[in-house]
Amino acid sequence: MLRSLHAAVFSPSAPLETALRQAGFPDTELQALRDTRAMARQLREFAQAGGRIGRVDADFAGANGQPGLIRFYCPPAPQARTHSGYGVLAHELGHALLLPEQWLPPTHFTDVHGYARARELGEAHAWLNQYRLCTQKVGGLPEVAPVLPIENPYDLGSQPVDLFSRIAERQAAGWSEARILDELAMLSAHMFPCGMGAGNFKTYGQCHHWDWLKATESRHPTFMDFLQRLGRAPTPHEQKLLTKRHVFVPAQGGSTTPAPWDRQAVIDLATALRGAPGGDLAQLWALAQDLSPCEAPEGVDGCRAAATHTRAPDSIATSSTQAIVTGEMP
Predict the structure, then answer these.
(1) Does pTM surpass 0.70?
(2) What Rg, from alpha-carbon coordinates, does the chain have?
(3) What are the CB-based long-range contacts (under 8 Å, 24+) for 32-37?
(4) Are the C-beta atoms of residues 190 and 205 closer than 8 Å to each other?
(5) Mind listing the pLDDT tens digit for each residue in 185-198?
(6) Strand partners, 54
(7) Is residue 39 predicted with pLDDT exceeding 80?
(8) CB 149 within 8 Å of CB 110
């Protein structure tokens, strides 16, 4: 049975192998899928459940996975299909096979934090699955450790984090899997998804907050008042501002966590945005700062720091960011 199933997954005429070839997987990577037992086992599980792999022609390279379907987004030549490889497949198998709660709709959750937590834990499981399968990889192309920009909590700068090194350090320190997943979930909230489109700089956490707000907007009269006053759909920059500044939903934290903005401040913000369409992030950040006090803890200058978005590591740092980047957890 296992041998026939292996042939159904990996023979040259098998649907999964055919789909992977069409998505741009080189022969060396396909051989690594066959030769790495843990990877082959997950692919068999995916195939047994009726899982499919698809290629999508796009102007960017990317991938996403969900139960039953993994897609690879392939740009035209001469652009490289950077996501068509073993490590990305390992990541998307994590999404497809692990933590089904991540796929519950926003309306299933009573608050944004429950929804965001499920989505961010799903990302954490995908990263941990990628790390495990990459460390067991047999043959194929060398795997490049993912060093990702992590956005600072109280400004628009970012700092690099090597996720594989972080996981290895935590394992060496004796951390439990649950604790490692907690940290990866925290980091994922401040990561930038790929394939968001030009000019869209929301992090995963900001995307989750916005998706939940839109799906449950009837529960939030102040949000509806804001949209009515704005008179148009918020731009991606405005969506980022609204979620990062916690205009409608308070940040999760202790007694010092600021409450959502009051209704008048929200209306004033909508009025200001309506009069300044197309503003860049720095302009919008300064505008919001004029209407609401800084949310950063005492001693952190994040709200006054240079409000310049970055998709690559930079040198902007705050004390609270250090807790995220270095993983200093209580």
Answers:
(1) yes
(2) 21
(3) 32/86, 32/137, 32/138, 32/139, 32/140, 32/141, 33/86, 33/89, 33/140, 34/10, 35/138, 35/139, 36/86, 36/133, 36/136, 36/137, 36/138, 36/139, 37/136
(4) yes
(5) 999 999 998 766 66
(6) 71
(7) yes
(8) no
